[in-house]
Description:
The complex is a heterodimer.
Chain A: H1 2-31, H2 38-56, H3 60-86, H4 92-113, E1 129-132, E2 135-138, H5 139-161, H6 163-173, H7 175-179, H8 185-210, H9 218-232, H10 237-257, H11 262-276
Antiparallel strand pairs in A: 1-2
Helix pairs in contact in A: 1-5, 1-8, 1-9, 1-10, 2-3, 2-4, 2-8, 2-9, 3-8, 5-6, 5-8, 6-8, 9-10, 9-11, 10-11
Chain B: E1 4-6, E2 9-13, E3 16-22, E4 25-26, E5 31-36, H1 42-49, E6 60-62, E7 65-66, H2 72-78, E8 80-83, H3 95-101, H4 114-120, H5 122-126, H6 137-149, E9 155-158, H7 167-182, E10 186-190, H8 194-200, E11 203-208, E12 211-216, H9 223-231
Parallel strand pairs in B: 5-10, 5-11, 8-9, 9-10
Antiparallel strand pairs in B: 1-4, 1-6, 2-3, 6-7, 11-12
Bound molecules: adenosine-5'-diphosphate and magnesium ion.
Residues 13, 16, 18, 36, 38-44 of chain B line the site of adenosine-5'-diphosphate.
Amino acid sequence: MIxxxxxxxxxxxxxxYALFAAGxxxxxxxxxLVNLAHGDLIVLGAYLILLLVTLLGLSPFVAxxxxxxxxxxxxxxxxxxMLNRVLGDDILPPLLVTFGLSIVLQNxxxxxxxxxSQRLPTAGLASASIELGAINVGVLPLMTxxxxxxxxxxxxxxxxxxxxxxxxxxxxxxAVTASLMGIKPANIFAVATGIAMIxxxxxxxxxxxxxxxxxxxGPARLIYAFEAVIIGGLGSLWGTxxxxxxxxxxxxxxxxxxxxxxxxxxxxxxxxxxxxxxxGLFPRAVD
Amino acid sequence: xxxxxxxxxxxxxxxxxxLFGVDIRVEEGETIAIIGANGAGKTTLMRSLSGVLxxxxxxxxxxxxxxGDLPADxxxxxxxxxxxxxxxxxxxxxxxxxxxxxxYGRQIKGxxxxxxxxxxxxxxxxxxxxxxxxxxGGQQQMVAIGRALMSNPRLLLCDxxxxxxxxxxxxxxxxxxxxxxxxxxxxxxxxxxxxxxxKVADRVYCMMEGRITLSGTPEALSREAIHDAYxxxxxxx
Lengths: 287, 237
Ligand SMILES: Nc1ncnc2c1ncn2[C@@H]1O[C@H](COP(=O)(O)OP(=O)(O)O)[C@@H](O)[C@H]1O
Ligand SMILES: [Mg+2]
């Protein structure tokens, strides 16, 4: 029974990692851009929610609704005025720029909020749990997983069922030919990063309500997210969810054996999947 | 006033000059054929007209307005649609999605719609849910033409409309041209097959080494003149 419990907790943790990863996966799938500041943007989102909670007295679950449009605008502008300029055949410039952005964000947050660790208040929700048979499931982890699945369902709907989604896929296939259809690739990329920032804000909500955070925790979130994206197969959103769950499971199982093995087990699972499936579990047919 | 006119159009790839002062004109309702050997600059001309290659504003006028410096998406919005060389279907999109995205930047009512394109090329309806790139070359060309028609363009550019296709398919594609013409669209067709070009075109331009070397109606052009304009004049020994 204890193993069933461990597995359930692992899957739930995977929901959090999938949320960290979904925005990264979306942006990579559309424009082949690896945003090294992704983790720090999640932390920025958490501080923005914290600010709204402190200044306006909002619940974090309401504050996220205010923060999300602001983060969309930030992502849109970031892509439109900075990242689009370095996108091209060479993958190095965007890596350098987003690496720089990561450092700038960490230092700006340190300057603005100090290194003290923070937590978003949940009025008891963080410790609430429900009984499922013999297993105790935390309400917040359960909400995280449900949110992750919802986010991916919605993203897939946008991607495969809407005019915007067609434009995303066409631009990703061939930006020059897309422009012959009247699509402005620069705008499409900006909207994609804006949407990714909405997901980042949702991820920030759960990052901040489930655990303490400080300006330095971004890069570790980036690594988990990155591993989830790669395990799932670049560009596949359901793959990203599965990738997150695999990392979450591996960490929880590792920790059950020896608490010191938690982080390491996740990384080992990542390497094992890559050994068997170098292109991830659901690689895109066309690349 | 001509629908489209170029004046002293030039194009460069880095230091390499691919077009040298090209002047062409397309009247409302006309079908123009552009012929010329490989490397003559036909594709470069089409890419310039569609805004993929930018120019000085006055190099291209469309409906009386200077559009030479507009990006491709703005040119398309004004009513110039392109069937690019190599067809360039979107592999991530189904046949129907490829068609639908053709009107992304210009959604106006007109002769062309999904239904009208399916009526023009019935085989596409049967294969509407296939990935565009799963089709035969000829069917892909039909998708590319249909995709361009979806925006109800005033001017349709077709680069290498029949290159690499089987003769039966070429017949089907050429059968569509009178119907496109009847819908009111003007056309510029790049075609290496001189016989085909002369059959459908109201006027022909021949290109060589980045220049227009000959132009006129099919009736007015002699075989020798076309030969010389296509391959260059062989110096009398
Ligand atoms: N992307 C490019 N970079 C450099 N040179 C090019 C490029 N595309 C075409 N050219 C050159 O420009 C000239 C005209 O090419 P193109 O317009 O493709 O001719 P055509 O379509 O008539 O075969 C050729 O000499 C070709 O080598
Ligand atoms: Mg060509």
